[in-house]
From TrEMBL:
EC number(s) per entry: 2.6.1.9
Annotated signal peptide: none
InterPro entries hit by this protein: Aminotrans_II_pyridoxalP_BS (IPR001917), Aminotransferase_I/II_large (IPR004839), HisP_aminotrans (IPR005861), PyrdxlP-dep_Trfase (IPR015424), PyrdxlP-dep_Trfase_major (IPR015421), PyrdxlP-dep_Trfase_small (IPR015422)
Taxonomic source organism: Sphingobacterium deserti
Source species, domain of life: Bacteria
Subunit and interaction comment: Homodimer.
Domain Aminotransferase class I/classII large: 49-340
Keywords, ordered alphabetically: Amino-acid biosynthesis, Aminotransferase, Histidine biosynthesis, Pyridoxal phosphate, Transferase
Record pathway: Amino-acid biosynthesis; L-histidine biosynthesis; L-histidine from 5-phospho-alpha-D-ribose 1-diphosphate: step 7/9; Lipid metabolism
Residue numbers of N6-(pyridoxal phosphate)lysine PTMs: 212
Record's protein name: Histidinol-phosphate aminotransferase
Necessary cofactors: pyridoxal 5'-phosphate
Catalytic reactions of this protein: L-histidinol phosphate + 2-oxoglutarate = 3-(imidazol-4-yl)-2-oxopropyl phosphate + L-glutamate
């Protein structure tokens, strides 16, 4: 458990002074029959359902439903237009452009670096070890007085493995800045979520998403879990109506399908392990990284040629062969049983053709 943490010392001065936009729905509480405060079209929408009214800016009903599933109260929850919105807000809240820096641990999710560049924030790369774990000594050496954020993806993308929990806790306890733990793939892992330990680490932000296990990628809904104080900062910075009404309604209905989602997760894990075992038996496959995600990273011979061969057959995978520590690797998302069978068959055919 972290003994002391000064959030105010990390915030940018302009964010401390920021007076957030106060929307009509923020100012009004309760029920009303006549709404003439927000310059909406009172006649309705040219659609079978009316979307002429602005949505709930803080998504109260949605957060209450998520609380029933995850056990995390609404005041500890931020909902964003994908996890990318939460990532961007972290930079805008805590990193002074041209002065502060963040630490990334490649190979990792590429949006951290993109967001740093967009916000003109320097980043220091401390590569994972050969076994795709944190280099604690390297991270400690990289931290300076202007390091505000450390991003850790676990299970990691693109490698698929979980990061050692004790190592993450070591950073949480010893780093005075914000530690961001991206758990986009946590549903496929046996590891417990760090979101259940918010009370222990006031400097922690946990990112999750409904794009993967929940199958709602097109709706773009991401979640950030953190202390009440950090969530207050997020809500201060976000656009007033960042989650549209249609998304809120569809997600609220979809969250009732937890049994179906749990069934999908079990099937994906079984398919993942079966495809991993099949590919590992091929002589041209050098290594399949054990995965806690819904994808596998496979090191194999002629990766670029295989990639092009698959594209030619209308099969799109991710070429990671030029990423540091992922040399020679392709990343395969786990699909349906038929899709996974087609991947395996296609890989075998490719190698048979070049032998």
């Amino acid at each position: 458990m972290k003994e002391s943490f000064n959030l105010d010392a990390l915030l940018r001065d302009n964010i401390k002074k920021l007076v957030p936009y106060s929307s009509a729905r923020d100012e009004f509480k309760g029920e009303a029959s006549v709404l003439l405060d927000a310059n909406e079209n009172a006649f309705g929408s040219p659609y079978s359902k009316n979307y002429n009214r602005y949505p709930d800016p803080l998504q109260h009903h949605l957060k209450e439903k998520l609380y029933q599933i995850k056990g995390i109260p609404a005041e500890h929850t931020f909902l964003g237009n994908g996890s990318d919105e939460a990532i961007d807000i972290l930079f805008r809240a805590f990193c002074e452009p041209g002065r502060d820096n963040v630490i990334l641990v490649p190979p990792t999710y590429g949006m951290y670096e993109v967001s740093a560049n967009i916000n003109n924030v320097a980043y220091k790369k401390v590569n994972l070890t050969a076994s795709y774990q944190l280099d604690l000594d390297g991270i400690a050496a990289a931290i300076d007085a202007y390091t505000k954020l450390i991003f850790i993806c676990s299970p990691n993308n693109p490698t698929g493995n979980s990061i050692n929990r004790h190592d993450i806790e070591t950073i949480l306890v010893n780093f005075d800045g914000i530690v961001v733990i991206d758990e986009a793939y946590i549903n496929f892992s046996k590891q417990p979520s760090f979101a259940q330990a918010l009370h222990e680490f006031p400097n922690m932000v946990v990112l999750q998403t409904l794009s993967k296990a929940w199958g709602l990628a097109a709706l773009r809904l991401g979640m950030a879990f953190a202390s009440k104080e950090i969530i207050t900062v997020f809500n201060k910075i976000k656009p007033p109506y960042n989650i549209n009404q249609a998304t809120q309604e569809i997600v609220l209905e979809a969250l009732s399908g937890i049994e179906q989602v749990n069934g999908w997760i079990k099937n994906i894990v079984v398919e993942r392990d079966e495809l991993s075992a099949l590919l590992a038996e091929l002589p041209q496959v050098e290594h399949v990284t054990p995965s806690d995600a819904n994808f596998i990273l496979v090191k194999l011979q002629e990766p670029r040629s295989l990639y092009n061969y698959l594209v030619g057959r209308g099969i799109i995978v991710r070429d990671r062969s030029k990423v540091e520590l992922c040399e020679g690797c392709l990343r395969f998302t786990i699909g349906t049983p038929d899709e996974n069978a087609l991947i395996y068959q296609s890989v075998c055919e490719f190698y048979n053709n070049i032998d």
